[in-house]
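Please describe the entry underneath.
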Amino acid sequence: MIRFVLYLIFIAILSTTLAFRWQKQESKEIFRILDRGRWGFINQSGAIVVKPRFDGAWSSKEGMAPFLTGEKWGYVDTSGRVVIPAQFSGPGEFSEGLAAVEVDEIGAAKYGYIDKTGRLVIKPQFNNAWGFSEGLAPVEIAGKWGYVDRSGALVISPQFDWVHTFSDGLALIITDVKAPDPKSKHSFQFPIVGNYGFVDRDGKLVVKPRFKWAGDFNEGLAPVRIGNKHGYINKAGEVTLNPVFDHAESFAEGLARVMINGKFGFINNAGKMVVEPMFDEALHFSEGLAAVRMVNSDDRWGYIDRTGNMVIEPLAKDALYFSNGLAHVSPPSNGSLKGVWGYIDKTGKYVWVRTH
């Protein structure tokens, strides 16, 4: 259970990076839905592909969607056909044709990798494992993280306390991770307290772990915390955008979300403010749009384009980024549309709403 929780946290940390990669894919994916306690799938138009009948589900990536039956996970394709029967203790999303899965071994569960037929192409041998990116995947052995290639060979030996997947040719690594407060009820902490740096594909430390926080590289820059402020470094570890922001995140589609005096806006890679900091909350750009929230707009989320124009008026209580043409949102309880959560398209039209 702890490993699974850590996996979900890792996905949250990497949501920005993964979204950048997914949005480049042209395949038609399917999206998970929940109705009366059962999970199914819809397509981009909102049509039911698989009627809700599973105990759990994730939306598809690379044309494959995990589903849960009882305590085991399998995969359906975008037509809803079960192509990999439920047999794994834990599922991973497909990336670069492979998915990390948890397999019950004698005495302990181990992680390995399957292809899209369900064949184990890298035998279960890791304590934990994430998805592939730029040809390498993070794996954990005896409490330390390293990287394997698609053959399962260790390319970067396990030596780091925590890692991210590769992005823009470099991977974020964390050393000297501080243990959680023993008084805390959690066995992990977020953000992770340690020293942040970056390695290349050969495992060379190109940016030594000297920052107390950092985000992934994208478009040649990575956000870092210096003192109590955030700025950006290049791949040589040099500060190229001075630490003047209260918070900063990785670039996406040419813009990065930053916070000044409690408000969010967006800068370009020259540090110019393209969208003035006016939002109480904001997400990164994905597929040309970014979710933003302003308290004075009935505390609802809408979506802006790259110029800052509101192209989908505030309509949701909660909202996520667009992926494969749809965004996951929660309609406001006092709105004309009643529902718990659903999906909108890029016109702001609800294509599906959960009502039970």
User: Anything to note?
Assistant: The helical segments are 2-13, 15-22. The two ends are 28 Å apart (CA to CA). The longest helix spans residues 2-13. The CA atoms of residues 302 and 314 lie 4 Å apart.
